[in-house]
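Summary for the steering committee. The consortium agreed at its last meeting that each partner would contribute one worked example illustrating the joint modelling workflow. Our contribution is presented below. We chose a case with several input lines so that the handling of multiple components could be demonstrated. No manual editing was applied between input and output; the record is shown as generated.
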Amino acid sequence: MKTILFFLFILMSLGAQATEINGFASLYGSTILGGGPSQDSYTNENYNFTHFSKIGFNLNAPVNNQLSMIAQVIADGDVSDTANDSKTDWKPVADWFFLEYRNSDSSILRIGRQLLPILLTAEYIDIGALIPYFNLPLAFYNLSTIKAVNGISYEYGLTSGNQRFATRLIAGEEKKTYPLVGGELDGHFNDLIGLSLLYEWQWLQLQASYIHTQIDATFNTEFTISNPTTHIGQTLSYDLSVSLDHYSLGLKIDYRDILFYAEGIMLRGQKATSLNEATDGLIKEGKFLEKAIGAYAFIGKRFNRITPYYMYTRALWDAGILKDQVSYHALGCRYDPISNFTAKLELLSAKSAESSAYVHEIGRWSHGLSLGFDILF
Amino acid sequence: MKTSIYLTLVFMFLSLNVAYANFNFSVISHPQVVPNQISMNELKEIFLGNKIFWPNNERIFVAIVEKDEQFAEEFLQKYLNKNFDDYIAYWRRKLFSGKGIPPRKFKTNKTFVEFIAQTEGALGIIFAEEKLNNIKTLTIVP
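What follows is the complete predicted structure of the assembly.
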């Protein structure tokens, strides 16, 4: 149904007068330099340019002075777990598409599939040329468990001199499967409601967001059960209902060719309220999610067309019985020879550690090298 | 000491006004655009995509001449504090997050002026002194 609706939408967009079509493509490749596979899936073992490589198109079709149809379709080489985790094997999918209604300079109403403004770059994260770093480390980026929703949003913006303030209220729902520590969550995010605040002044941008959602999900986990006669690997599934709160805060400074980004995200989960009796014991040891915290700081300096940068990222996932933490150091360089083409090279070192009630793993280092090219057309 | 501070402030205020009063460009629009004048603040908001409607609720369509160095130096850098690449990057972020359509870019002054003359709600900045037909020139007020 969603696909039919999307293609109908695209056809109507193409039929509209003054439709703008713009495209983007990224060719990314990574390889492990040492220490085994990284926690981050974009440093894989084969330098095959499929992970995170992508191509996409953006359509903006004004229907009349107030109403526009806006959509983005994207195809990528492998599951990248961006806004739509069904993307794989170059199959084009609707990244997002919505109807936008504006009847004044300050108000915007959007209905349809839209990206959540959780992070500073969340709404254009797929377009590599527009983000200053190579990629956000997945351990950090995936802390925001939900990136897009089918719903409605209202934005109100005010400008005064060089200052701009905007607030956006969003409500919707989303079905999504994503990996969690110890298993995979097949969830339905109901009753999602969020608020985002943005402040801009010349070279400064501040953003704060809060998202609350209720999840009805099945959590599939595989582990070995100790038994007097044998050790058997079993997959257990249990149903749960849990509320999850996302908080994020971002700062961006672009002053005299110095770029500085700093962002933090925190998730807090409430105790699961509906569980299978068979797994009561497991859950009583800990909650579905105690908390998850992540932060990064990026600093770069433009020297004409070359921008060397350093980025530090840290993420911690605490699920009660399982804890997972990872930190990254990324040293990279971005080269913009022309305005619509970018090349990026990044050396990434990650230190990860997992621990549970039974096992404690001491930190493990891994190193990777990534090379990427981005083009806009 | 206090007097010299006051005098400095007054001088700075007057300098600011003088700077705003001496525009070396003209704002041109489609002849049927309603207002006859435009403030510098409105102009900045239009070029940043924060103001998209004329007072009669007609949509504003902004046009620029591609790689116009005079426009980059005398308007973008001076009033929006952006160079041409920054300005294009700003609009690309808006475009690819579904928040607006960038100004239409034209390769020559001739096609740029033709677009303004033919498109209802169109607006642009021009540095040429020549008299243009079928075009409205808006008075810039500080």
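Confidence is low (pLDDT under 50) at residues 278-286 of chain A. Residues 67 and 101 of chain A are 5 Å apart (CA to CA).
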